[in-house]
Amino acid sequence: MRYAENADPVITLTSGPVNAYPDVLRALGRTVLYDYDPAFQLFYEKVVEKAQKAMWLSNRPVILHGEPVLGLEAAAASLITPGDTVLNLASGVYGKGFGYWAKRYSPNLLEIETAYNEAIDPQAVRDMLAKHPEITVVSVCHHDTPSGTINPIDEIGALVAAHGAYLIVDAVSSFGGMKTHPEECQADIYVTGPNKCLGAPPGLTMMGVSQRAWDKMKANPAAPRASMLSILDWEQAWSAKEPFPFTPSVAEMNGLDMALDLYLAEGPEKVWARHALTAKATRAGIRGMGVDIWPARDEIASPTTTAVRIPDGIDEAALRAEARGRYGVVFSSGRSETLGKLTRIGHMGPTAQPIYAIAALAAFGGALKALGFKADTAAGIAAAMTEINRDN
Fold first, then answer.
1. Phi, psi of 26 (to 5 degrees)
2. Which element (helix H / strand E) includes 205?
3. How far apart, in whole angstroms, are the C-alpha atoms of residue 238 and residue 222?
4. Which label site among 116, 157, 269, 326 has the fewest CB atoms less than 10 Å from its CB?
5. Do residues 18 and 67 lie in contact, with contact meaning Cβ atoms separated by under 8 Å?
6. Residue 85, CB half-sphere, CA atoms under 13 Å: how many?
7. pLDDT above 90 covers what percent of the chain?
């Protein structure tokens, strides 16, 4: 049988958006309260407190009402001034992309760029900071999803803090799926969202903001106000006693509330462990069937997305089409420079379960064989099962 292109997939194993937890989907159907109703204002405050607990923050996080690209652009617009010198760390498409926003707000842009299957070397950051003491802002993408690679943001953050610069971290597809928190990496603005590892729909940004970042944004006359890009307008919106700058996304807040409840109830360490095991099993299975992963080393391979290097002679778009058409399984393509070179298998939130590694491998291997590549799917699944059973 074949699944029609317009039929819903059986399993979505993408790098985002991911399928939401069933409890989150049910929460989205709660009553949509009026944003000035005292019940909603108190509810909003309680959700922000849960986010603060989940993010291990000493102050209240900010919630912006748009998916995390809004938060990333808002960070650039609010924190970066024409007098700043920005060091952008680019190990992939999204890291590179932040530099375009930074350049919009300051003409003084420096960059460290590495191969897109590698990670940023902290020593290179140390050297650049020493060579350019005028650097005032550093930006880095923690998990550059189009490459499936992880940057060492805790080490980078320590160097940036010692230099006295401000650090912007894109943790959109890493927070909740591995051990990472704003204050651990000494981020001044840390951008994430519920639509990846927390298993909720896209629509909100969660943001950790340091006190020094608040001070810098307030001193920036060009920082957006009365704008969708404003961070400053939402500084006190967490309080039930303060008005919202504009109507918040009530249904999305209902979903975030449940997503945070699930994350905190299961326990972050257990959530991170199942993400890591699913990724480890997937990597073992991909290699077992005779294919390789995209990241240069396992040490920098993401526990939330496995990027698979496409064998020579295989059309990547055709491979994904075969996986969907034959098995109803959806994967993600690469982006920009990695488009056509790799396929991304996501394991985030509800699909960060080892059994989904087996489903992914069966569909991926079957699609490869349909396109003429002699993938040993059985060996791949056996290798993945060995990893899963070793953990039990």
1. -65, -40
2. strand 205-209
3. 24
4. 269
5. no
6. 12
7. 97
Give Cα 336 to chain centroid, integer Å. Answer: 17
User: What gap in Å lies between CA 316 and CA 349, rounded to an integer?
Assistant: 25
- Per-residue pLDDT tens for 222-272? 999 999 999 999 999 999 999 999 999 999 999 999 999 999 999 999 999
* CA distances from residue 324 to 5, 321, 327 in whole angstroms, order as listed: 8, 5, 5
Show the domains of the chain with their CATH numbers. 11-19+267-390 (3.90.1150.10), 31-265 (3.40.640.10)
pLDDT digits (tens, 9 = 90+) for 284-305: 999 999 999 999 999 999 999 9
Q: With contact defined as beta carbons under 8 Å apart, do 157 and 125 qualify?
A: no
**Are 33 and 43 a contacting pair, CB within 8 Å?**
yes
DSSP code for 242 = S
The three-state secondary structure class of 135 is coil
Structure tokens at 95: 């890291």
- 163 and 86 in contact (C-beta within 8 Å)? no
Q: Give the integer Cα–Cα distance in Å for 85 and 116.
A: 24
The answer to whether residues 24 and 200 touch, using CB atoms and an 8 Å cutoff, is yes
Length of the chain: 392
Measured from the Cβ of residue 303, the count of other Cβ atoms closer than 10 Å reads 27
CB 311 within 8 A of CB 246: no
Amino acid at 173: S
State the Cα–Cα distance between residues 150 and 334, nearest whole angstrom.
16
| pTM attached to this predicted model | 0.97
Residue 391 has pLDDT above 80, yes or no: no
Integer Cα distance of 286 and 278 in angstroms: 12
The predicted model gives 199-221 an average pLDDT of 98
Instruction: Identify the pLDDT of residue 230.
Output: 98
Predicted confidence (pLDDT) per residue in 64-74, tens digit: 999 999 999 99
